[in-house]
Automatic annotation (TrEMBL):
Keywords: Transferase. Residues 90-215 form the GST C-terminal domain. InterPro entries: Glutathione-S-Trfase_C-like, Glutathione-S-Trfase_C_sf, Glutathione_S-Trfase, Glutathione_S-Trfase_N, GST_C, Thioredoxin-like_sf. CDD domains: GST_C_YfcG_like, GST_N_Ure2p_like. This is Glutathione S-transferase N-terminal domain-containing protein. One of its GO terms (molecular function) is transferase activity. PROSITE patterns: GST_CTER (PS50405), GST_NTER (PS50404). Residues 1-87 form the GST N-terminal domain. It comes from Pseudomonas berkeleyensis. The keyword Transferase applies.
Length: 227
């Protein structure tokens, strides 16, 4: 059994997608980041950086004590190794996947995250910041689009790289992008969205988060961004 500490954000979706795709037993433990639940002492024991997602594997492969993990990229890699799915063992294929996973962690996530912040959450518009992050998001999606021109999925076969990138890329409209500029990415988004496991993962949103706009309140912004 995997305990998934989750909220309905792109990083949260990464792990729920994997768990659904792999068919692993898990239970969702909501962490409402708009109410400050990520700062609760019990959660900080698992995720000291006060960010979701986090997991606790109650039955690790070594049969030892439960393993707690934070950081979505590390969680995906751990679960892939645990299950033997969506991350090849062979060196060349494995690092083809991992380089795109880390590309998401180091590029798409931070840049699109800043895009979201300045476009949607900042208390006042800052044109320079908006332009900076909208353009950088477009540059990264150009890289992705070129890769997908020659591959059905990001690293060849469907993998944790796709699961990491998809929840961010599917928000292209909110990121002020023009999907017609990225036709291969657009087709890939449709392929991912059609997967039953992805649909089940996103169905958690309605179960967990009754008010998707809750993060837009002044109190939520104070908690999330120190405003």
């Amino acid at each position: 059994m995997i305990d998934l500490y989750y909220w309905t954000t792109p990083n949260g979706h990464k792990v729920s997608i994997f768990l659904e795709e792999a068919g692993l037993d898990y239970r969702v433990i909501p962490v409402h980041i708009g109410k400050g639940e990520q700062f609760e002492p019990e959660f900080l024991k698992i995720a000291p950086n006060n960010r979701i997602p986090a997991i606790v594997d109650q039955a690790p492969a070594d049969a030892g004590e439960p393993i707690a993990l934070f950081e979505s990229g590390a969680i995906l890699e751990y679960l892939a190794d645990k299950s033997g799915l969506f991350l090849p063992r062979e060196t060349r294929a494995r690092f083809q996947v991992l380089q795109w996973l880390y590309w998401q962690m180091g590029g798409v996530g931070p840049m699109a995250g800043q895009n979201h912040h300045f476009v949607r959450y900042a208390p006042e518009p800052i044109p320079y910041a908006i332009e900076r992050y909208v353009k950088e998001t477009a540059r990264l999606y150009g890289v992705l689009d070129r890769q997908l021109a020659e591959h059905e999925y990001v690293a060849g076969d469907y993998s944790i790289a796709d699961m990491a990138i998809y929840p961010w890329a599917t928000l292209w409209q909110a990121q002020q992008q023009k999907i017609e500029n990225f036709p291969h990415m657009a087709a890939w988004l449709e392929r991912i969205a059609a997967r039953p496991a992805v649909q089940r993962a996103y169905a958690l949103v309605a179960q967990v988060n009754e008010d998707p706009k809750a993060l837009l309140t002044a109190e939520a912004r104070r908690l999330l961004f120190g405003q």
